[in-house]
Amino acid sequence: MLRAPSDAPVMRIVADTNTVLSGLLWPGPPRRLLDRARERALTLCTSATLLAELAEVIARNKFVQRVQAAGLSATELVQDYERLAQIVEPEPLPAPVSRDPDDDHVIACALAARAPLIVSRDQDLLVLHPYQGIAILASAEALQHLDAKAAASSAPAH
């Protein structure tokens, strides 16, 4: 289990809705990202728009059994994530960036949060990697990226 040294700033990341949903409902790399946020090894950043999208998606009928298996209601899962994440208020981008206009909000959120990493499996976002210095990676690659950053920051200086 990696922990950031107490005097080192932890990395801020933005996870798109599908990544958060996967992390809340299934084991795997997205869940490990949420676990690291719970351990304070990273800071998840989100916005009111992304939280509303999560609430809408997690309430869909196709997720009812997974939500019940989690032992909480869809509302409780969203509230737990809201408490875990830092909420930012992004400005709209001055011009469209992604092939999917809805994904521009994820980018705007990362810019507002000054997050150097977006985690997504959405090809419309992944093709933009990197965007204005922001890495855009799938969750497994994001974990490797975080591990490499942690190893580099904890290596002794020569």
Describe the structure.
- There is one protein chain.
- The protein has helices spanning 17-25, 29-38, 48-58, 64-70, 74-84, 104-113, 123-126, 139-154; strands spanning 11-15, 42-46, 86-87, 117-119, 135-137.
- It has 158 residues and is of the alpha/beta class.
- It has one domain (11-151): Rossmann fold.
- It starts with 10 loop residues before the first strand and ends with a helix.
- Mean pLDDT is 92; it is low at 1-6.
Present the secondary structure layout.
Layout: E1 11-15, H1 17-25, H2 29-38, E2 42-46, H3 48-58, H4 64-70, H5 74-84, E3 86-87, H6 104-113, E4 117-119, H7 123-126, E5 135-137, H8 139-154
Parallel strand pairs: 1-2, 1-4, 2-3, 4-5
Helix pairs in contact: 1-2, 1-3, 2-8, 3-5
What is the CA-based Rg, rounded?
A: 16 Å
Q: What is the terminal separation in angstroms?
A: 26 Å
The top-level CATH class is Alpha Beta
State the order of secondary-structure elements, H for helix, E for strand.
EHHEHHHEHEHEH
| Unreliable segments of 5+ consecutive residues | 1-6
CATH superfamily: 5'-nuclease
Total strands:
5
Tally of DSSP helical segments? 8
Number of domains: 1
Average of pLDDT: 92
CATH fold annotation: Rossmann fold
Question: Main β-sheet, in a few words?
Answer: 5 strands, parallel
Determine the strand fraction and express it as a percent band.
Answer: 5-15%
Label the CATH architecture: 3-Layer(aba) Sandwich
Spatial ordering of strands, largest sheet: 3-2-1-4-5
